[in-house]
Write a structure and sequence with these properties.
Helices cover about 0% and strands about 50% of the residues. The protein has strands at about 5, 10, 20-25, 35-40, 45-50, 60, 70-75, 80-85, 90-100, 110, 115-120.
């Protein structure tokens, strides 16, 4: 059974940074794709970033390109999302997903989400 557990969310001031973690289990960590998505209050779920271990490809939404970085630690079965220069518009619940149909919010499995709030 595929399981994903996000952590690292919280309250941060505009311009600040957070690092989200997605701990994964139940599938081979050398052959996977993970996406980060977010959902703000009253809005649909949108793709933020994507990583595939198969070819090392990474993708970012235009709104976060240059500010967010996705990375992985295969030894820890964990994918990270480093978020810098955060803005109030980044406020949302962030989810990681296994084998997403990037950039659509369709995936084989989802984590429970972690809240990120950017506010002064």
């Amino acid at each position: 059974e595929v399981q994903l557990v996000e952590s690292g969310g919280g309250l941060v001031q505009p311009g600040g940074s957070l690092r989200l973690s997605c701990a994964a289990s139940g599938f081979p960590f050398d052959d996977y794709a993970i996406g980060w998505f977010r959902q703000a209050a009253g809005k649909g779920r949108e793709g933020v970033s994507y990583f595939s271990s198969r070819d090392g490809s990474t993708y970012y939404a235009d709104s976060v390109n240059g500010r967010f970085t996705i990375s992985s630690d295969n030894a820890k079965n964990t994918v990270y999302l480093q978020m810098n220069s955060l803005k109030p518009d980044d406020t949302a619940v962030y989810y990681c997903a296994a084998e997403p149909d990037w950039p659509q919010a369709v995936a084989g499995a989802w984590g429970q989400g972690t809240q990120v709030t950017v506010s002064s």
